[in-house]
Each structure stands twice: as C-alpha cells, then as structure tokens.
Amino acid sequence: MRRKTGGRWKKSNFAVGIPPKKNLMRIIRFFYRKIYKKEPPYYYYYSIWKIIVIPIRKYFNVVIIPNTPFNNLRVFMYRCCGYKIGKNVFIGMKCYLDDMCYDKIIIEDNVGISYGVYFACHGQHQVQHTTITIKKGAHIGMRASLISGKHGITIGENSMVGAGALVNKDVPDYVTAVGVPIKIIAPV
Ligand SMILES: CC(C)(COP(=O)(O)OP(=O)(O)OC[C@H]1O[C@@H](n2cnc3c(N)ncnc32)[C@H](O)[C@@H]1OP(=O)(O)O)[C@@H](O)C(=O)NCCC(=O)NCCS
Hints:
single chain, UDP N-Acetylglucosamine Acyltransferase, domain 1, 2 domains
C-alpha cells in the first residue's frame, strides 16, 4: 500500500517510508561522509526547516534585538523568538540570551535585566541544555553572566544580582548576591 507523505503521493518515499525532507539530509550526509571520510556533525541531522530558522533567529538575537533602542520592542521580539517573558519586564540593550535554548530561559513578571547581561544554557561538556529561571521582581545588574550549568539556576523572588557577577548557582529569594562567582552579601 502507498503512503501519503508531505501532502502528496511520492513513489520514492513510499519505497523507504521516510518523509522527503529527511531524504535530502540523508543525501547531504552521504556526500559529507564521502568527501570528508568521517561522520557528519550533529547539525547535519537537523531538518531543512531548522537549518533555515536557526541562523535567522541567531541574527535577530545577536544583532537586531540588542541594538533596538525601545524596551517594549526588544521584549516583543524576544517573545517572538520563543523566550518566555512575563509582564512589565525590562531587558537592557546589548544583552545576549542563549539563542540555542530559547525555550530554557524563563523570565517572570517585573524583572529588570540591565545592560549587557549574558545568558548561557548550554556549553562544552554540558550534555543537556538546562534552564535559567528569573523569578518575579528580581534584578540583574549590568554585565552579569548567568550560566545554567548541569542543573540549571534560579534567581529568587525580588533578589538583586550585582553588576559584573558570575551566577553559576541558585540565588535565594530576597537577597543581594555579588562577585565572581556570586556570594550572598545581604538580604535585600
Ligand atoms: C549589588 C549592589 C546593588 C549592592 O549595592 P549595596 O547594597 O549598596 O552594597 P554596597 O555598595 O554597600 O557594597 C557591599 C559590599 O559588596 C561589594 N559589592 C557591591 N557591589 C558589588 C559588585 N557588583 N561586585 C562585587 N562586589 C560588590 C562592595 O564592595 C562591598 O564590599 P565590602 O563590604 O567588602 O566593602 C550594587 O553594587 C550593584 O551592583 N548595583 C547594580 C548597578 C547596575 O547594574 N545598574 C544598572 C544600570 S542600567
């Protein structure tokens, strides 16, 4: 019996039972193996759609959004990229929100993120992408870096992270944390 793939009947795909998009990537992988004599990297296993969308999102995330001078527009565009951002949030210019893990960054209501804050949810030797959660009313000082590590991190409610801090562990609610890596110096 013939199968329907991608809305149309395809004889070649019927033979192997695989949607057409995957077949194209199979051919590309085949030539990669032939030319370079090694296994293709992980992104050769992505769908065509993903290969097109990833650089577009990266360009918006790294070039367009951080240089947009209106906060509402920046937040709107971040939301369009897939980040979960609550109400009344400020995200300064020149921030970098990990574009590979747009679904792993959760920013709750009334959060303030100053200029030049960097978020990283993935990295070398980190098998799984992990979550960064910023709870209600928290504030991140300028040029801080947030690294989710193996287990993910949470910045507690109404907490303050100092300028230039390196956050690599959880920050409890209602505290001020500063330094590289962060240390709690006082309740807010
Ligand atoms: C974190 C912060 C709120 C702390 O302010 P504070 O409560 O008034 O704290 P203090 O200035 O009394 O400093 C307390 C101690 O923390 C240290 N400290 C303060 N901020 C620090 C920081 N960002 N990094 C490292 N240490 C810091 C101080 O040196 C001081 O140490 P000491 O007691 O050994 O002298 C403030 O320093 C800060 O970083 N604000 C963010 C500013 C910012 O990013 N603005 C955005 C503009 S868009």
